[in-house]
Amino acid sequence: MKGCDFIFYTPEDQYPGMPHGEMCGDIMPFYWEGRYILFFLYKYCIYAVETEDFVHYGNLRLVLQNGSPDEQDWHAATGSVFHHDGTFYFYYTGFCEGNRGVPGKYEQAVLRAVSTDLIHWTKDRDYFFPPDTRFYGDRHWRDPHVFWNPQLERFCMLITATEKDGAVLRDGCTAVYVSDDVKHWEHYQTIYSPRTFPTHECHDAFQMGDRWYLTFSNYSRWWETRYRSAMSFNGPWEMPDQDDMFDGREFYAAKTVTDGKKRYLVGWLSIRKDCRDDGRFVWGGNACVHELVQREDQTLGVRMVEAVRRSFRRKLPLQIHGYEGIWNLEERSQMSADTDSEQLTGISEDGFGWASLGELEDPCLFEATLRWKPGTKAVGLMIHASGEKLERWCQLRLELTHQKIVMDYYNRIDGDQSYIDERPVRFRDGEARVQLLVSGTIMQVYVDDVALTTRCYSVQSDLMGVFTEYGTVSCIQPRLMAR
Fold first, then answer.
1. Which of 136, 182, 463, 465 places its Cα 20 to 30 Å from the Cα of 147?
2. What angle is formed at CA 123 by the lines to CA 120 and CA 129, rounded to 5 degrees?
3. Which residue numbers delimit the Glycosyl hydrolase family 32 N-terminal domain (predicted)?
4. Other beta carbons less than 10 A from residue 306's beta carbon
């Protein structure tokens, strides 16, 4: 199966009624000799697909077949790949729901497979690492993540675990085991146990500069990937003041991978049940990749992968038309010599005003700088806009007084109780760089170094534009690009 080649990888097209397990989930990225190998869960087995740029993907291949209902890996699940001394080690989770509550058996255990070429894998039938009940609870025991720890000068394995006698649904913790040979492991300590979440799934730990970062995912509220930072691997692990997430509420199980120069965050974007805007978000979806950025204050942001941006080479014509408010287009000849494109300015002091910029293709990329005057309440983009009276639309809102970005939709009416996709942003200097990537049902937005990725099933393509509410916006150097 070829899978999807439109930026956001998935092994097959999504369709209404798609069963759990038939989607791409819990991606385990690994870099080797110029290529990124994305191991992922699919059909209760572990598969892999390769890419060199996060734009084009090869054919998927089976890595680990799941076992029988009587075997520990009835479902082969999340783990990590590590290379040492000529051998690739794949530590993964063996799920067997039928073992729950059975004396002497375990619902979850850490298992191991080995390879010499990343293609052919052999399960190590002699390796079995069940929950370590000396220190932890006996149920949640999964997602082993192995890495070299330069501070400890030993190999480390992070494990999703629970406190042995913790509070119900607040006992999630990060267990650490260490090794000198990537084969034999001993308990080190619990490095993070905030008594907040039921579990911390799909851990990762890495250094950027002089800081350590710990990432994990949690499903108790939304699908969410969070992070903490510390000066030492041993902690204390601090929560960022404003924002401890990398993307919206559908970006899950993200782990990092580096080529030695840049570090990328690879997770999956959930789909909605039956591919409907009013369906609940379910497990699994499309691969979603960001480049990690360390800010001056040591917090983390993200930006678009540069190879993804460069893959959009064909310039689409701008077709500007003002619908509400007063709009003025400054041509290149009227502007300064160092400006290579137009500037569209709109004024709508008594409410909402918008202008179209052109027609979307699938996929396409839009980029511009949005600038606003003091006192303006909101500016942003209209996406998938259609109808003589703007009957259908999606809207990226930069809510300036609230210091956040929001993705809103035309069909959120009549007391719709589904949550709004939003992210906190620190707007500075009265402007923001905005990028919008549209591919199928997916809309991915970057506002400076903050991302918000979400979906819309009911409307696709049509017009895009810019808007302002109770104020003035300028759209500077707009570019609409296709592949």
1. 136
2. 145
3. 29-274
4. 12
Would you mind telling me the total number of residues written for the chain in this entry?
483
Amino acid identity, position 68: S
Q: Rounded distance, CA 403 to CA 228, Å?
A: 22
d(CA 28, CA 40): 6
Q: Tell me the pLDDT tens digit for each residue of 94-150.
A: 999 999 999 999 999 999 999 999 999 999 999 999 999 999 999 899 999 999 999
* 110 Cβ contact list (under 8 Å, min separation 6): 79, 91, 92, 93, 94, 129, 130, 141, 142, 144, 159
Spell out the SS3 assignment of the chain. CCCCCCCCCCCCCCCCCCCCCCCEEEEEEEEECCEEEEEEEECCEEEEEEECCCCCECCCEEEECCCCCCCCCCEEEEEEEEEECCEEEEEEEEECHHHCCCCCCCCEEEEEEEECCCCCCEECCCCCECCCCCCECCCCCEEEEEEEECCCCEEEEEEEEEECCCCCCCCEEEEEEEECCCCCCEEEEEEECCCCCCCCEEEEEEEECCEEEEEEEECCCCCEEEEEEECCCCCCCECCCCCCECCCCCEEEEEEEECCCCEEEEEEEEEEHHHCCCCCEEEEEEEEEEEEEECCCCCEEEECCHHHHHCCCEECCCCCEECCCEEEEECHHHCCCCCCCCEEEEEEEEEEEEEEEEECCCCEEEEEEEEECCCCCEEEEEEEEECCCCCEEEEEEEECCCCEEEEEECCCCCCCCCCCEEEECCCECCEEEEEEEEECCEEEEEECCEEEEEECCCCCCCEEEEEEEEEEEEEEEEEEEEC
Q: How far apart are CA 94 and CA 68, in angstroms?
A: 11
> Regarding beta strands 404-409 and 421-424, do their DSSP bridges make them parallel or antiparallel, or are they unpaired?
antiparallel
- The Cα–Cα gap between 442 and 6 comes to 10
We find that the CATH architecture of domain 25-310 is 5 Propeller (2.115)
Owner of token pair 């480390």: 156
Q: Between vectors from CA 355 to CA 352 and to CA 360, what angle results, nearest 5°?
A: 125
In whole angstroms, what is the distance from residue 386 CA to residue 256 CA?
Answer: 38
Cis peptide before 236 (omega within 30 of 0): yes
Q: Are strands 314-315 and 87-95 parallel, antiparallel or unpaired?
A: unpaired
The superfamily in CATH containing domain 314-482 is Exo-inulinase; domain 1 (2.60.120.560)
pTM here? 0.95
